Amino acid sequence: MKVADFDYELPPELIAQEPAERRDGARMMVLDRSTRTIAHRRFTDLPEFLRPPDLLVVNDTRVIPARLFGRKAKEGTGGKVEFLLLEETSPGQWDALMRCRRRPKPGDQVLLDEDLAVVTVLEDGELGRVKIRVESALPWLEVLDRIGQTPLPPYIQRKNVSEERAAADKVRYQTVFAREPGAVAAPTAGLHFTPDVLERLAARGIGHATVTLHVGIGTFRPVSVENVRDHRMDFERWEVPEETARRIAEAKAAGGRVVTVGTTSVRTLESAAARPEGFGAGQGRTDLFIHPPYAFRMADAMVTNFHLPKSTLIMMISAFAGREFVLEAYREAIRERYRFYSYGDCMLMV
């Protein structure tokens, strides 16, 4: 199967640059896989499509303000350096992307904004990657909260972002489930949920359980090969708690559906199920690439946003609902002027 088989034309004005006024204010396209029908609803209608003992599974990763700016310590004028933190590989050591005019060499240091921390370059790699060590007098997460910026996706393009807008992004580009720091991108299907929606779901007997998958830079990396099978995914860290594994088993045993919120929840559950011992609690790192054909073990329904053409995410949902049906739905979404990508509208596939 070719990567080009997952392409579509999107008018640029349909790429959402700002979140909806209300978290739960998005439109929701509903795809029924059994009847191959499409309906147009609102996200607040979600409870109508679920029934006990269905169980929502959400990703509780927390986006860290991973974009940092500093200046080279050994230059009198202080050449500017930008970092995007990717993953903490050991205490104080990170894989990161680095951008600057003249790249610092291993051993060189960079002073971060407000001089709250010093970054030492340990290794220089390919495609802008580096290994760095970070030292700070204050707790590192506190430093990030003070000087880090939210790493919005590259298709959100704004000019002259005010401090108020940047502060708002730190809130809106974070789900209400966010607990475990470590992601550099939000699990965006979860952005639509509010306490009110969760209360209405609970009133219908629909609960939710959490998994963790720390979304990495691979979510933005374009697929550069021609054949789908030749693509290699970046590794991401995942965890399924004991309570979540138990509740999923109980829901399935009672005839309920596991309704995954976002492709990251799908990837977590399917990675856990792909182990030799089968599905259960655990943690690890996954490079699982879900594309057609694929037999899903865990996900029975899915809430997801609209994804980039030729991306691994549109390939995943095509494996779930069928490539032709998904592309038909995307054409319908464009005709109906849905808002696309991270801050855009969503889709429910049942």
Label the overall shape.
globular
CATH superfamily of the largest domain: QueA-like
Total DSSP E strands: 17
Helix amount, in percent? Answer: 10-25%
Give the count of structural domains: 2
- CATH names the topology of the largest domain as QueA-like
Q: For the record, give the distance between the C-alpha atoms at the N and C termini, rounded to a whole number.
A: 25 Å
The overall pLDDT average reads 94
Q: What structural class should be given to the helix and strand makeup?
A: alpha/beta
| Secondary-structure element series | EEEEEEEEEEHHEHEEHEHEEHHE
Main sheet properties: 9 strands, mixed
CATH architecture of the largest domain: 3-Layer(aba) Sandwich
Low-confidence stretches: none
Instruction: Give the strand order, joined by hyphens, for the main sheet.
Output: 2-1-17-16-14-3-12-13-15
Would you state the CATH class of the largest domain? Alpha Beta
> How much strand?
25-35%
Total of helices: 7
Over all CA atoms, what is the radius of gyration?
21 Å
Task: Write up this protein.
With 350 residues, the chain is an alpha/beta fold. It has 2 domains: 3-63 and 172-349, 3-Layer(aba) Sandwich (QueA-like), CATH 3.40.1780.10; 67-147, Beta Barrel (Thrombin, subunit H), CATH 2.40.10.240. 21% of the residues lie in helices and 28% in strands. It has 7 helices and 17 strands. The strands form 3 sheets. It has a 9-stranded mixed sheet with strand order 2-1-17-16-14-3-12-13-15. Helix 6 (312-321) packs across helix 7 (323-335). The mean pLDDT is 94.
